[in-house]
Each structure stands twice: as C-alpha cells, then as structure tokens.
Amino acid sequence: MQYKANTPDEYIEAIPEERQPVMSELRKVIKDNLPEGFSEVMSYGMIGYVVPHSLYPGGYHCDPKLPLPFMNIASQKNFIAVYHSGIYASKDIMNWFVGEYPKYVTTKLDMGKSCIRFKKIDQIPMKLIGELASKITPQEWIEMYEQNIKTK
Question: Which residues form the YdhG-like domain (predicted)?
C-alpha cells in the first residue's frame, strides 16, 4: 500500500494507528544497527535505507538519479514487509537468515526474493532484523551490487 508521505515520520503517521508502534520500533532497530554511511529516505513510497550519491555517485542502475537502494520497510495491506537487497544478492546472508529465523519465531517464514512478510505484527523478530541490518556495510553492498549487475 502506498501512503502519501514525504518523510519517514509522515509515513509512520499515515499508516493505521495499530501499526504505528511496531513500525516505529522496526525503524529504530534498523537505524540502531545499520552500519554508518547508509541514509534513511522515502523510497518507492516506503521508508528506505540507501547508499547516498555522496558514497556512490552512479546511483541505482535502473535510474541513476536515485541513490542505491539497500533496505525498505513498509506497512502493506495484509502485512508489514522488510525488503533487504542483501538477502537477494547473497546466498550466505539468505542461508544465515533462513537458518536463524526459527530461533526467534514459531510462525512459518513468509519470504519472497528480497521481501520478508510479517502477517502477525506482534511476531516480528526485531533482534533478528537488527542483526540482518548490521550484516553489510555500504562499501560491501556497493561491491556486491556491482558484482551482481555485471553477472545479469
């Protein structure tokens, strides 16, 4: 679902009231764990974490005017979503996350290529999401990203 918001704070205010505390906590966990250098922005109508043009002037290959996306969080119609590009780009990170998930949550992992869906908002493994956010520095993400776009 898209919300009309120009800032992450506006986004949190625009989503359903019952989701605001969870999204605020998720945002804080990510910001507290994300390596230095990433920037928080509004990206694709969601709260996004990107490699800014100051670190990666080339930007996103699909639209170089945009900074290089890394991670997003969103309140969708039926779930809260965490989008993490590193899961899609790195089998090691994917395998780590899939292996760790059952240690935190008893519900089945609902995941796409880079999207982790949480239908039960009271069962979001905040500590695990924080660990996931901490796994890749901006420089490591740039290297992984460049390697992946060369092989596609």
Answer: 19-133
- What is the span of the domain harbouring residue 130? 8-151
CATH code of 32's domain: 3.90.1150.200
Could you please report the per-residue DSSP string of 16-43? -GGGHHHHHHHHHHHHHHSPBTBEEEEE
Count the domains in the chain.
1
- pLDDT tens, residue by residue, 57-75: 999 999 999 999 999 999 9
- Sheet holding 68-75: strands in order across? 39-43, 46-51, 68-75, 80-84, 115-118, 110-111
The tens digit of pLDDT for each residue in 4-36 reads: 899 999 999 999 999 999 999 999 999 999 999
Backbone angles phi, psi at 76, to 5 degrees: -95, 175
Residue 1: inside a domain, yes or no? no
